[in-house]
Inverse folding.
């Protein structure tokens, strides 16, 4: 039995908004083995994105803990968590979130450069080639279509060979056909690189391709396919 | 781990993508730096010129100066010095000159020269040999302006007191042609051997006796000055050396250019505000990118570093461009200050000024960018996923306070450097900060008021326009600061100039005297009075003037006080001067309108010892108060007096005012002269009368106040022109900040306009929304700014020039209107795309 890549225990998050406490997540507990593919499903406002943020160390939980690759994220400060992200985590966002002032290749290079890795340019071009964007390295995001932008984001997400890749509605802004291509790419990268995938979506078809699905409603787990 | 290379690489990529409006910001920094480099480089040139020309300005290595003829003891010393060096004497005084052939008359500054003065530098004359031939006959050399005033030419006979001379040439240039020195009248050089023929050195004349020395190499002027200063001090003789003159001149000129530098600094600070406001918008636009970088593992510090480096790089580019422009501009400054500078200035590049300008530009831009940039540290990586909940941000940021303190400290330090005084630097920075704070407060109140109390009954376009003032991401504060500060600066400058000139309008009122008759001997007084009566003129009560010196104060002899007065710098008109100087006092029994008793009692009538009333500032410097005893030396006769009262005197009133007034009884028999005032409105009649007086009474001088006023006005105009020139830079920066701030919101506006038009608004309605918005902005900024300007103008008039303050309503209203119109015009120009482009085209652009 491997140790879990991602483990959370009694995770909860409460925000203060407009002078009232707003509980967005309550008592989430699960763990995910290395190389796993988890889909988190749920309607809008069910706390999917908040959970993703906590799992990736973008935010601090109000209660409970998150362990990523054996490391307790709650014990780390903001800069230490940033380092964990730089070392081990990749992201793919619904709105692509490419940096508009950087070319496709530079966007892919950013995580590599943050780690101070040599040969970032070569690796970035290789990845762009892999996602079918050879020859588009020097285009800016505004010069690419939505599907192309998301492929750049995918290349960026995988560039550091992350232990975990978090994807937040990665096909939400794309048409069905393009979305399917993106998911195919993700799955093949997951398979080839052994990356653990965490996918947030409300698309049942998409969730169906995961090894495991977690359904959220009102901030609580209502079903877990692995359970 | 992240390498330092990442931060630099990212900063480089950000710079590459820097939008055009950031180039606009670079320009705002550039303009401020240009102004600073120009003025500071010019100051360095001026110092160099003073250093090179100081010797020529004095015309000698060493000079001894006295207000009374040198005593036998001093003459003995001068003799000793003359045997070891070349020496020359100059005696200067005022007198009336006229040319018998023509009808003019003019008060002139006479310099009676003996010996080879000047030993350094050159008095250039036309014809060339005139100066060397001055001593060879009854020759005079005059300022060209005197020829014009008297309608005379070279070769004419000129009358000076009782003497008759031939004009042998004109002065083309002489060292020390400073602006103020000859405001009282043109100068005229005569040979000292003919001085007595003028009979102008009577009792009561203000005369300056100077002895100049050119020392051989083995004698040091400084050593001589150090050696003879103490003994000469009690003889009331001042020593001037080249080094003293250079230091004093540098002090005065540095103060002048220092103030001009402050005006330049305002341009740079305005640029800083522009940088800060653009950075706020920039951070807002980059929030998503920052959140993504944070998701990808960049630390908050690394992201901050990226943008600081970017700001720094743009500041370097802007400052370098500014420094280059400044070097060019510097060439314009000598022309601008022409006539005010005692030295010829050759513009050369001052590398220290260039370096300093670069440093100041980069520093100001980075410090002002830092405050808003600190916000990038607080952008949560979570923002890449969704909009943050409102309470997630910590409200306190220690670093923000550090940044704000850095901005404040920078302002004080830069201003202090520019004027060379911490105190004045702090006052300047405090004043600027107060003005900015009040403008900020006004804009804050405006947005608050618009949010709360915008009447729902108003027409739609007005409600929409005014609501724009407080919408999210509005530019109200930046616009009010940029427009308001520019208007404040312009308004203050105008008011100071207006009031200064107002104060100079000595002959303004129809009843105000415009002609002063002085040096009237007692026996001439009835004759002069009759002359005035025949001419049908009203004259003021003649005021007696008795020249005197202090012999002792509160029992301590002045010689002792002078010997113990600290400071080797004799030219410093401080303590030593109040003991050494000649007092021209009067006696009377009543208080005049321009003075007010502030301590003790005004006691008319005879008393023993005599009662005196002293001007309060002088009393403070002398350390005397009511009841103290001062003994005076009146032409060798001791006169004992007791301080009976202290007075506040309004020196701005052009009337005969006195530091010391005696009660009647003590001075009636002392040697004295009279001064009286009259008014002749017609300039021609004034000339005729002066001429008749000069012909009949050679020693009586008349001072035409309207001429004096003209000379002073010319000087004020010069200074104001120079200040305006520097203020132009602030105005340019203010306009750029205004355009920059408007451009930032342009895209949003075009979209809103398109949406409004899609919903059925006509282009006229869209324009009216814009007008409503900018009209309210312009009115608010201009009104607050001009109220501030009135306060600042009042403070300057009251405390710096100690005169009355008037607010010229019509020009101020015109200024307000101009600012409002400009604001609305720029706003409309910025919005022309709103109606020019089809709504659909804009909406598709998304």
């Amino acid at each position: 039995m491997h140790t879990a890549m991602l483990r959370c225990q009694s995770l909860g998050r409460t925000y203060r908004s407009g002078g009232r406490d707003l509980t967005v997540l309550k008592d989430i507990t699960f763990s995910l083995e290395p190389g796993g593919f988890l889909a988190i499903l749920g309607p809008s406002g069910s706390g999917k994105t908040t959970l993703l943020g906590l799992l990736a160390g973008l935010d601090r939980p109000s209660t409970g803990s998150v362990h990523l690759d054996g490391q307790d994220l709650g014990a780390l400060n903001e800069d230490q968590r940033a380092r964990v992200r730089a070392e081990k985590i990749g992201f793919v966002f619904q709105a692509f979130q490419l940096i508009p002032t950087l070319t496709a290749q530079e966007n892919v290079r950013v995580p590599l450069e943050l780690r101070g890795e040599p040969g970032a340019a070569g690796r970035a071009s290789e990845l762009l080639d892999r996602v079918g964007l050879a020859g588009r390295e020097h285009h800016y995001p505004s010069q690419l279509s939505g599907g192309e932008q998301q492929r750049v984001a995918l290349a960026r997400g995988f560039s550091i060979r992350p232990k975990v890749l978090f994807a937040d509605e990665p096909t939400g802004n794309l048409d069905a056909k393009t979305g399917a291509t993106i998911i195919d790419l993700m799955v093949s990268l997951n398979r080839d690189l052994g990356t653990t995938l965490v996918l947030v979506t409300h698309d049942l078809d998409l969730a169906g391709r995961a090894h495991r699905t977690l359904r959220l409603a009102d901030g609580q787990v209502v079903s877990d396919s692995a359970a | 781990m992240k390498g330092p290379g990442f931060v630099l690489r990212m900063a480089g990529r950000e710079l590459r993508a820097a939008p055009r409006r950031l180039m606009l910001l670079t320009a705002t920094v550039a303009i401020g730096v240009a102004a600073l480099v120009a003025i500071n480089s010019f100051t360095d040139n001026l110092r160099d010129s003073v250093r090179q020309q100081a010797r020529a300005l004095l015309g000698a290595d060493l000079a001894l100066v006295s207000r009374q003829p040198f005593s036998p003891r001093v003459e003995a010393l001068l003799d000793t010095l003359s045997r070891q060096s070349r020496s020359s004497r100059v005696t200067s005084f005022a007198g009336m000159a006229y040319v018998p052939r023509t009808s003019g008359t003019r008060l002139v500054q006479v310099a009676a020269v003996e010996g080879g003065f000047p030993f350094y530098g050159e008095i250039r004359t036309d014809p060339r040999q005139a100066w060397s031939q001055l001593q060879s006959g009854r020759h005079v050399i005059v300022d060209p302006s005197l020829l014009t005033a008297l309608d005379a030419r070279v070769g004419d006979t000129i009358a000076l007191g009782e003497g008759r001379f031939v004009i042998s040439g004109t002065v083309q240039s002489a060292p020390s042609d400073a602006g103020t020195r000859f405001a009282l009248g043109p100068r005229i050089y005569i040979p000292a051997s003919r001085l007595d023929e003028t009979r102008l050195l009577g009792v009561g004349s203000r005369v300056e006796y100077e002895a100049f020395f050119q020392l051989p190499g083995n004698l040091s002027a400084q050593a001589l000055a150090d050696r003879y200063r103490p003994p000469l001090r009690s003889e009331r003789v001042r020593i001037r050396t080249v080094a003293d003159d250079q230091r004093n001149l540098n002090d005065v000129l540095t103060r002048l250019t220092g103030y001009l530098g402050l005006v330049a600094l305002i341009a740079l600070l305005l640029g800083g505000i522009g940088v800060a406001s653009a950075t706020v918008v920039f951070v807002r636009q980059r929030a998503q990118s920052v959140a993504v970088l944070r998701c990808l593992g960049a630390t908050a510090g690394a992201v901050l570093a990226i943008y600081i480096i970017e700001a720094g790089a743009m500041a370097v580019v802007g400052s370098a461009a500014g420094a280059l422009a400044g070097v060019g501009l510097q060439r314009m400054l000598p022309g601008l200050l022409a006539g005010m500078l005692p030295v010829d200035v050759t513009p050369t590049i001052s590398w220290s000024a260039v370096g300093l300008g670069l440093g100041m530009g980069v520093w100001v831009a980075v410090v002002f960018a830092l405050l808003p940039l600190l916000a990038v540290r607080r952008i949560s990586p979570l923002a890449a996923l969704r909009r943050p909940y409102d309470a997630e941000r910590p409200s306190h940021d220690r670093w923000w306070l550090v940044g704000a303190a850095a901005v404040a400290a920078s302002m004080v330090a830069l201003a202090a450097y520019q004027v060379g005084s911490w105190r004045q630097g702090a006052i300047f920075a405090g004043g600027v900060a107060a003005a900015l704070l009040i403008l900020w407060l006004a804009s804050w109140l405006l947005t608050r008021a618009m949010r709360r109390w915008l009447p729902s009954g108003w027409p739609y376009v007005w409600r929409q326009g005014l609501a724009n003032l407080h919408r999210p991401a509005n530019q109200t504060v930046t616009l009010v600061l940029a427009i308001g500060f520019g208007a404040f600066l312009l308004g203050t400058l105008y008011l100071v100039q207006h009031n200064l000139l107002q104060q100079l309008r000595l002959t303004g009122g129809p009843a105000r005297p415009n002609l002063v008759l002085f040096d009237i001997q007692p026996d001439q007084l009835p004759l002069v009075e009759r002359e005035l009566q025949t001419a049908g003129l009203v004259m003021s009560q003649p005021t007696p003037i008795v020249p005197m010196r202090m012999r002792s104060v509160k029992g301590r002899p002045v010689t002792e006080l002078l010997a113990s007065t600290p400071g080797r710098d004799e030219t410093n008109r401080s303590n030593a001067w109040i003991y050494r100087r000649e007092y021209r006092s009067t006696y009377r029994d009543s208080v005049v309108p321009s003075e007010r008793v502030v301590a003790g009692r005004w006691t008319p009538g005879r008393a023993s010892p005599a009662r005196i009333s002293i001007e309060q500032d002088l009393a403070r410097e002398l350390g005397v108060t009511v009841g103290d005893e001062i003994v005076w030396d009146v032409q060798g006769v001791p006169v004992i007096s007791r301080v009976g009262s202290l007075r506040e005197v309004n020196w701005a009133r052009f009337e005969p005012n006195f530091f010391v007034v005696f009660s009647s009884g003590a001075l009636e028999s002392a040697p004295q002269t009279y001064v009286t005032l009259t008014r002749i409105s017609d300039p021609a009649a004034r000339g005729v009368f002066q001429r008749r007086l000069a012909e009949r009474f050679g020693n009586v001088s008349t001072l035409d106040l309207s001429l004096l006023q003209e000379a002073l006005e010319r000087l004020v105009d010069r200074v104001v022109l120079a200040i305006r020139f520097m203020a132009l830079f602030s105005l340019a920066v203010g306009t750029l900040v205004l355009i920059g701030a408007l451009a930032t919101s342009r895209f949003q506006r075009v979209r809103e306009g398109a949406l409004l038009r899609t919903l059925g608004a006509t282009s006229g309605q869209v324009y009216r929304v814009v007008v409503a918005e900018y009209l309210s902005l312009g009115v608010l900024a201009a009104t607050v700014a001009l109220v501030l300007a009135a306060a600042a103008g009042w403070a300057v008039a009251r405390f710096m020039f100690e005169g009355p303050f008037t607010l010229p309503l019509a020009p101020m209203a015109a200024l307000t209107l101009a600012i409002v119109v400009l604001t609305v015009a720029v706003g409309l120009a910025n919005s022309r795309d709103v109606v020019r482009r089809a709504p659909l085209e804009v909406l598709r652009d998304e």
Notes: Chain A touches chain B through 37 residues (CB under 8 Å). The first strand of chain A starts at residue 6 and ends at 17. The radius of gyration of chain A is 17 Å. The mean pLDDT of chain A is 88.
